[in-house]
Design a protein that fits this description.
- By secondary structure, this protein is an alpha/beta fold.
- The protein has a single domain, classed as Dihydropteroate synthase-like (TIM Barrel, Alpha-Beta Barrel), CATH 3.20.20.
- The chain is about 40% helix and about 15% strand.
- The chain has helices spanning about 55-65, 90-105, 120-125, 145-150, 175-195, 215-220, 225, 240-245, 255-265, 280-290, and strands at about 20, 25, 35-40, 70-75, 110-115, 130-135, 155-160, 200-205, 235, 270-275.
- Strands 8-7-6-5-4-3-10-9 form an eight-stranded parallel sheet. Strands 1-2 form a two-stranded antiparallel ribbon.
- Helix 1 packs across helix 2, helix 2 (about 90-105) runs parallel beside helix 3 (about 120-125) and helix 3 (about 120-125) packs parallel to helix 4.
- The chain is globular, with a radius of gyration of 18 Å.
Length: about 300
C-alpha cells in the first residue's frame, strides 16, 4: 500500500479566493458555500408554484436557513427549457414578499437575486440582496455589471446557450469546455470593463442551460480548466434533467444524483454549489471539504 504526503492525491487543488459582496467578505476554498434555492415562480422545472404565496415563501426561507445554507438565491422568472419570459414588474411582484420576509426575520444568510434585468436587481439591492446572479452572463442586460460596480454587489456570470425558450434545441459544441471557457472569460472582461472588481466576480458553467447530458458530464470532468480563470466557480447540478437521463428518474427522485454531481464538482475545484435539497447537500459537501483539506 502506498503512503506518504503525496499519496492519494486524486482531486483538484481548490483555489482560495476572497469573495466580496457589499460589506460581506467570504473566504472561499476551505469550506464549500451552499446556496439554497427559492423560486417564487409558477413554472420552475422543480418547484414551480410551491412558493408563490408569501407565507409559503416565508416558510421556505426559514427552512433553507435552518438546514444550513450560507445564502439564499431568490428568483421570480423561470429559466427552465422552453420557459416564456416575464416583464420586470411581474418578476419583482413575485419576489418582493420573499425579500420583505428575509428582512423582517433578521436573516443572517446572504441574499442573491436570480435575474437578468437591471431594474429587478436594483430593487432587490434596495431590499437586502448582496449578490446579482445573472444566468445570461451579461448577454441580456449588460447594465447588471454597471449596477454591481456602483453598488459593490457580487456578480455571478453564468453561461447559457441562446435563451430558455430555445436553449435545448439541439445544442452543439466542437469542444464544450473550451468554448464555455472563452465565453466566460469574455463575460468577466465585460464586467471588469464596466468597473466590477475582480474579487466580486463568480463564474458558473451553467449545467443544463443549452447542454446535453454528455456536455454537462464533460464540464464536470473538466471543471479544473474553468478554475484556471482565477475566479470562484459555482456549480448548480441540483435535480437537473441530465441526472434524470442518467438515472431514469423524475425530478423529485434525483437527490442522490444531485449530491453525487455536487460532490464531484467540489472535488474538481468548485467553491459554491446551488441546491434545492439544502440539508443533504451541506452534509455531502462538508465530507468533500474534509477530503480536500489535506491538499491545499
Amino acid at each position: 500500500m502506498t503512503s506518504g504526503a503525496g499519496a492519494g492525491r486524486a482531486f483538484a487543488t481548490r483555489t482560495h479566493p476572497i469573495l466580496r459582496a457589499l460589506d460581506h467578505t467570504i473566504p472561499l476554498g476551505d469550506r464549500t458555500v451552499v446556496m439554497g434555492v427559492l423560486n417564487c415562480t409558477p413554472d420552475s422545472f422543480s418547484d414551480g408554484g410551491l412558493y408563490l404565496d408569501p407565507d409559503a415563501a416565508a416558510r421556505r426561507i426559514e427552512q433553507i436557513a435552518g438546514e444550513g445554507a450560507d445564502w439564499i438565491d431568490i428568483g421570480g422568472e423561470s429559466t427552465r427549457p422552453g420557459a416564456e419570459p416575464v416583464d420586470a414588474e411581474e418578476e419583482w411582484r413575485r419576489v418582493a414578499p420573499a425579500f420583505a420576509e428575509a428582512r423582517r426575520s433578521g436573516l443572517k444568510q446572504l441574499l442573491s437575486i436570480d435575474t437578468t434585468k437591471a431594474e429587478v436587481a436594483r430593487r432587490a439591492l434596495d431590499q437586502g440582496a448582496a449578490v446579482l446572479n445573472d444566468v445570461s452572463g451579461l448577454r441580456f442586460d449588460p447594465r447588471l455589471a454597471s449596477l454591481a460596480a456602483e453598488s459593490g454587489a457580487a456578480l455571478i456570470l453564468m453561461h447559457m446557450r441562446g435563451e430558455p425558450r430555445t436553449m435545448q434545441a439541439d445544442p452543439a459544441y466542437a469542444d464544450v469546455t473550451s468554448e464555455i471557457l472563452v465565453l466566460l472569460r469574455e463575460a468577466a472582461e465585460e464586467a471588469r470593463a464596466r468597473g466590477v472588481a475582480e474579487d466580486r466576480l463568480v463564474i458558473d458553467p451553467g449545467l443544463g442551460f443549452g447542454k446535453t447530458a454528455e456536455h454537462n458530464l464533460e464540464l464536470l470532468r473538466r471543471l479544473p480548466e474553468l478554475t484556471a480563470l482565477g475566479l470562484p466557480v459555482l456549480v448548480g447540478a441540483s435535480r437537473k434533467s441530465f441526472l434524470g437521463k442518467i438515472l431514469d428518474l423524475a425530478t423529485e427522485e434525483r437527490l442522490e444524483g444531485s449530491l453525487a454531481a455536487h460532490t464531484a464538482a467540489v472535488l474538481a475545484g468548485a467553491h459554491i454549489v446551488r441546491a434545492h435539497d439544502v440539508r443533504a447537500t451541506v452534509r455531502a459537501v462538508r465530507t468533500a471539504d474534509a477530503l480536500l483539506s489535506g491538499i491545499r
